[in-house]
Amino acid sequence: MSVRAVLAALLIWCSAPALAQQEGAALYAAHCAQCHDGDAQSRVPGRAALQAMSFDHVLGTLTSGSMAAMAKDRSDAERRAIASFVTGKMPMVSADAEGRCAQQAGGFAQALDGPRWNGWGVDTNNSRFQPADMAGLTATQVPHLRLKWAYAFPGASVSFAPPTIVGGMLFIGGTDRKVHALDARSGCTLWTLALDAAVRAAISFAPLPGSDQVAIFFGDLRANAYAVNALTGALIWKTKVEEHAAARITGAPTLHSGVLYVPVSSIEEAAGSQASYECCTFRGSVVALEAANGKMIWQAYTIPELPHPTGKNAKGTQLFGPSGVAIWSAPTIDAQRGAVYVATSNSYSNPPAATADSILAFELATGKLLWKQQATPKDAFVVACFSMDKTNCPDEPGPDHDFGQSPILATLRDGSRILAIAQKSGVVHALDPDDDGKILWQTRIGKGGALGGSEWGSAADGERIYVANSDIRFKRDGTRQLDSTQGGGLFGLDLASGKVVMEVAPVACGERPQCSPALSAAVSLIPGVVFSGGVSGFLRAYATDGKLLWEYDTARDFKAVNGVPAHGGAIDGPGPVIAGGMVYTNSGYGQWSGVAGNVLLAFEAGTD
């Protein structure tokens, strides 16, 4: 579009702002307020978070993003009116981003087998433990960490995709519906690729089988999986792994032996809350794709049974079940047993599925279910259970204690193996992968809740598992304000016994606004050091005896290398990434009343 055409379009748009705002307010009240103005614990952003977003981001979400299923009956003009109302902004005129690298990459700046953090868990066991040679950072250097650069995502209120570091390059997705390739040491931009939807999952890196290309693999919030040339950003293949309108990929696909194992989740838990919605028909799944071409090998559903009509709600809408049991996190590979392990979420409707809130083991080659171990039975839940209109909330709803993180496969000193995982219930579980998931021990570290217990990820080094506790709570005054006195705590548990051997007390917020001591973000680990980010906006590093080594307040303004206005905020979702002597963290999470933000921060150890 020419500059003249853009200006003309903006002139037309600006000619009737009051009308657009008025229409948008009415549409929002009729179709959006139930969830976005509802209880603070609902899994959708509140009004404050929406106001921090750009017009273009909200419009894209309504048109082709995670809210497209809910907005399918709205016209283009109505979607624009809603976007204008909730953000108070107009469309942006796009410009070439600043911060381009002076010399574009003709190859990798570093060896591909050098320092790297590849995918969600740094390995296919999802340990989130970075060995010393890959970390390039010791416990004695951690107190000397200093900010090196910041990179900002335009128009975002959350920074929710962790970076992958390989060969001196950094790959990361954003809410701007792009994947960005940066120089890992300077943050300058090498290339960007526009996509159908935002990418919140980690990216995996590997040679493309049968070719001379090196590729990155990832999924987006419209359930598309991709392979892209890592050096150029050219699309190699794209495969839609699930046709359900509410389907999305939030967990990182895991790559193993030329096969990409893709976890499938959904946003039907929110869409199903509308009384007019036929709740619910989505089933979670794992999809195995050929990494070379994206062709499907198998799809294994977390609920074997197809949803069927179960009755009608109080307003006469047909209901379906069983449903739900999404997979929010990255699959874990067990090459020894030829299995892939996944952790599942709650059911969405009755009857509750026997595979909800469970660890499931599927055969790598075929997708056959090998065993299941359920942690919380009868957990049927949708966002309506926290809303004013509870029409579609299941009778006798469950506690919403699903698993939001990946199982960790670890080998103990005596050679025995263990699957360890923490749950939103506040309980840490250890299973025997060599005995059909038999429970070895269970230890409570938190009170649990819909946003409680352990959320996004734990870390383990073969001796211990380190678990962060969320237990976010809100003031009981009808507002969406965080309770600054509730939540938090970091724990180290002996993997063999489940005994708590290290505990860090919650760090109080004081008078800090929009603050909680909750630790919801994933934990990361290097020898002798545990990194944990908090909803307060602080990133902290602790010695494995619980001593504080370093902290940094990310909830402030930054000067970004790409020239985009940058602000840090709450830290939630992904955990820190450590590679080659640098520490990278996302900052900004405008949901759950946390401080919105849009940055990726990179730290390097200096000398005092």
Automatic annotation (TrEMBL):
Gene3D superfamilies according to UniProt: Cytochrome c-like domain (1.10.760.10), Quinoprotein alcohol dehydrogenase-like superfamily (2.140.10.10)
The protein's name: PQQ-binding-like beta-propeller repeat protein
Keyword DNA repair: no
Superkingdom, taxonomy of origin: Bacteria
Recorded family membership: Belongs to the bacterial PQQ dehydrogenase family.
Family annotation (SMART domains): PQQ (SM00564)
Residue ranges annotated for the Cytochrome c domain, each copy included: 19-90
InterPro entries: Cyt_c-like_dom, Cyt_c-like_dom_sf, PQQ_b-propeller_rpt, PQQ_rpt_dom, Quinoprotein_ADH-like_sf
Organism of origin: Bradyrhizobium agreste
Cofactor(s) required for function per UniProt: pyrroloquinoline quinone
Keywords: Heme, Iron, Metal-binding, Oxidoreductase, Signal
Secretion signal span: 1-20
Alphabetical list of Pfam families matching this protein: Cytochrome_CBB3, PQQ
